[in-house]
Amino acid sequence: MFQEKIGVRSVRLALGLLAGFVAGHALAQDAPMQRVEITGSSIKRIVKEGALPVQVVSKEVIARSGATTVADLIQKLPAMQGFTIEAIAAGTNSGGRSTASIHGLGGTYTLVLLNGRRMAPFQDSGSSVNLNSIPMSAVERVEVLSDGASALYGADAIAGVINFILKKNYRGLTLDAGVSVPTNPGGKSANAGFTWGFGDLETNRVNLLMTYRHDEQKKVKATEREFSKTSYIPLGHDGQSYIYDRTSTSGTAANVNVAFKNPKADQIGFNPYKKVNGACPTGFFDYLSNTATTEYCAVDSASTVETVPESKRDTLFTSARIKFSDNLTGFADLALGRFDLTARIAANPVSVAVPIGSPVYNQYVAPYLSADQRADVKTATATYRATEFGTRNSRTITDVGHLVVGLEANALGWDMNTGATYSKYQLDERYTGGYLLNKEFRSLIGGATFNPFLPAGSPSSPTAEQINGSVFHGSIREAYSVLRGVDLRASRELFTLPGGASSIGLGGDYRELHQVQTASAAAKNGTIYSFTTPNQFDYTRDSAGAFAELALPLMKNLEVTTAIRYDRYSGVEDKNAKRTKGETQSASTYKISARYTPTTALLLRGSYGTGFRVADQNDIANTLVANGVTAAPYACPADLVAIDATLCRPGVNQYNSYLGGNEKLRPEESKQFTLGFRLEPSSSVTFGADLWDVKMTNQVSNVGEIQAFANPAKYRQLFTEFADPATGIKTWAFIRAPINIGKAHNRGIDWDLTVGEKYSFGKMTLNVNGTHMLKASYTIPGSDTEWTDSMDKYGIDNQVTFRDIVKFGATLETGPMTNALTLNYRNGYTDQAASLYNVATKAAAVSQIRLQVPSYSTVDYQGKFAISKMWEVRGGIKNLMDKEPPLTLRTSQGHQVGYDARYADTMGRTIYLNTSYKF
């Protein structure tokens, strides 16, 4: 069966990736057998189940998923965990980037390719590719290799490879349009585009292709969903009533913090409005985390953020292929994209000095201090929030350009492919509201009428003219990554073995990565009030690699493939520092895999390999910058005394600290294996599973100051000297910088089952597939011996590793109509520990509480109707039961409170309609 039903097996690969979506008619059963290149190998072969677990998402599967973006498609696959989502743009400078992460290993270990070639990574993360930069309309299929360290693409693909294969040799004109409308307020989206192709490569010797698409996504406000409307959340736990308080002590009717000259005197804080009126202002809460020295009022800032930011996306893909002869074809592919996202978060919280003796101080601060306190006041600071100036709006425009020009040839028995790549990822982050002009705002708060202790709308509030004249509009930073590269790969058959002809693949590549970030003049010259200038850098690094792969069919039913690769990475050229940082790093890696078919119904397969990954340029080359002082005071360690006692501070004291890179970082290393099988007891039933295991060492990690001061001999590279700019006196200082110390061990099983039967009324297919995690352990940052994990719990890495993510689907094809129902499931987990307010005792809970977040399931439906051979309509409902995200008390991932957008659907029940017409 495995030798004969090539088309059926290709379809099964697609079925095994997305539960409930079946591509039974995506590949013709009677298609001629031809040699093609499969992701994870450089050798062209007949399409078949191979030794590596490559899963395929076909064009039909993509359409049936209802996904409107590449991120939406990829991040919902069961094997994906630990990725970054677009929604965290609310409260971060991510610009709406979205990443892929196979098996929870992270985006930096998952290699994303476009037509088998690398793209420029987004600047902020160094090596991850933003899925939003991939043109959805141009994707023909996606191949996912869930086994890492590909000999073809680079040993840094430790988690695996995701290869987006774009359309080619397309003929005709197709118009597409779609609309999506949630049944809850906000969040509407729409898209429209076309695909045009001219010429047949075989008959006309030329093919031109162009596809364009425009997408628009409307925002969803936090108050438009019940689960996100507040950061003051009542809840029950173990029969007790609690309140989870994530409100902010920065408000329009500000609190005040008073510091004293006596260093032994504790600072105090209170709300002057409450002191005067006996209660917090309307819309404020009594802050539930008050202590004996504070009496704050708090504002529900999370209610003003956006659950889903608004965005626009334009993507264009053009391709030209010319067949110069039967054995030589030239090609040029150009992908262009612009992603325009605006994220809005709560109004700006800023500190405002209250001059001692000023009218505001005398009326709202001094009366509530004792005589001794008034005599000892050093400073009084209002924790003001500029509510009347509007929300903080950050608009990030991302431009992507990806050009590949190359040749495909066949000569002297070799299949060859070579190409030159130029890929650029560029962003411009602009502030469009809520951020304050320094000079103008200082003038306003220094005026006689300004009173930070009164609510918005008070007579002392700024006028509309003052507000408009005090808001900054403009760019704060620009950043870009440019990847230039050339590659060559070739394969051919060699000698004959008992199982058939052996094959060899050879190749190499060279790449240069240039990453730049610059701050705008306004960001550097103090134009913006209370603003820290972004880091600026200009880094370049080149790399080169070569590989060889050999496929050996030792017997009719046994094939072994071996591969070896050598990679070299240069140091990082720091243009600003005018020198190279870090050393040239190189390594050889290998992989051996095998497939065995003891019967026609059973395939056994396995692989073992190694990998390595060099640190990001930022981790290596970041310039050392002053970063305050250590959080705690320390006695000068004996090891540092022995080196230079004159650099020690007297007694127990805080030491200055730096933030920087580490030029001595070594490559991260990995060892991984897979063992799996595919079983086809009949033509209508298939079942498969793959056990995978990845161990990593030398992971880049950060050592905490407590660990470093406890053992400075071990972490000697993290200590340097600091010269006080005022006195010139030199002392020891601690460097917060990455080092090679971490370890990780992940293991799991990817599995799928498909049952399909034809009946008189049509074809019914049932499919279930998922990922079962067995291990997700890693060492505590700064340690190589203390292990922890995030399995079914919110870990110290601010994420959850779900033991089970499953998709189940049922599809019925009846003539021109296809109906598909899909169930998406992920298990529950133990939440992040949180401090709650006990309503009964009117005090904070004695110990932190960890909720049990329940399992989460959604049901999707889609119906497709082929009106004619040219006209097709699809309609569906996502999240049919309108399942809300479960309550979680986590504190990471942007400004959203009470839910985790990574693990649940924040849009709610959504009705969509798509149509396409081919001329």
Automatic annotation (TrEMBL):
Q: Which domain of life is it from?
A: Bacteria
User: Per UniProt, which keywords does this protein have?
Assistant: Cell outer membrane, Membrane, Receptor, Signal, TonB box, Transmembrane, Transmembrane beta strand, Transport
Presence of the UniProt keyword Kinase in the record: no
Q: Name one Pfam family in it.
A: Plug
Q: Which residues form the TonB-dependent receptor plug domain?
A: 51-161
* Matches recorded under CDD domains: ligand_gated_channel (cd01347)
Q: Where in the cell is it found?
A: Cell outer membrane
**Membrane topology label:** Multi-pass membrane protein
User: In its UniProt entry, what is this protein called?
Assistant: TonB-dependent receptor
